[in-house]
Write a structure and sequence with these properties.
α1 packs antiparallel against α2, α1 packs parallel to α3 and α2 runs antiparallel to α3. It is built from 7 helices and 4 strands; from the N terminus they run ααααβααβββα. The chain starts with 7 loop residues before the first helix and ends with a helix. By secondary structure, it is an alpha+beta fold. The chain has a 4-stranded mixed beta sheet, covered by helices on one side.
Length: 157
């Protein structure tokens, strides 16, 4: 788990946004969107700041953060890995590739390595079904993968 590294400037920017938005009906989503824009994700500490400054219970904030796919509770790594788990890729073994990446990186899906180098996510389709199974690292597409390919590919980064 990557430790939270918020700055006083980020906190001031979030508090300003909260004060501007909190009186408006339906302000929680825009506040959370602004917070994610500022920090890049919504860790517990940021959710707590939102709760303390809006009066919205932590449980509700966490519920919104985990319900909507636009929000993430974990930072993104320097290199973003995305494994396609769409039908064509999954049938050809992308689930095992995803599992192997979790083993090698020692993180779960949606998480970031402790050194901040890699984050791992699953996606539903990258539009490269003919190359199944597929993963992307940043903008680079790797296709026709096997579990044995994964470690060598990671070594390039």
């Amino acid at each position: 788990m990557v430790p939270f590294k918020g700055t006083p400037e980020q906190e001031a920017e979030l508090l300003k946004a909260i004060s501007e938005l909190k009186g408006q009906k339906g302000s929680l989503m825009p506040i959370m969107q602004k917070a994610q824009d500022i920090y890049g994700y919504l860790p517990h500490e940021v959710q707590q700041m939102i709760s303390e400054n809006t009066g919205v219970p932590m449980a509700k904030i966490f519920g919104v953060a985990t319900f909507y796919s636009q929000f993430t509770l974990f930072p993104k790594g320097e290199h973003k890995i995305s494994v396609c788990l769409g039908t064509a890729c999954y049938v050809k073994g992308s689930g095992q590739i995803y599992d192997r990446l979790q083993e090698l990186l020692e993180i779960g899906g949606g998480e970031c390595t402790a050194d901040g180098r890699f984050s791992l996510d699953a996606c539903r389709c990258v539009g490269a079904c003919g190359l199944a199974p597929v993963m992307m690292i940043d903008e680079e597409v790797y296709g026709r993968l096997t579990v044995d390919d994964v470690e060598g590919i990671l070594g390039k980064y």
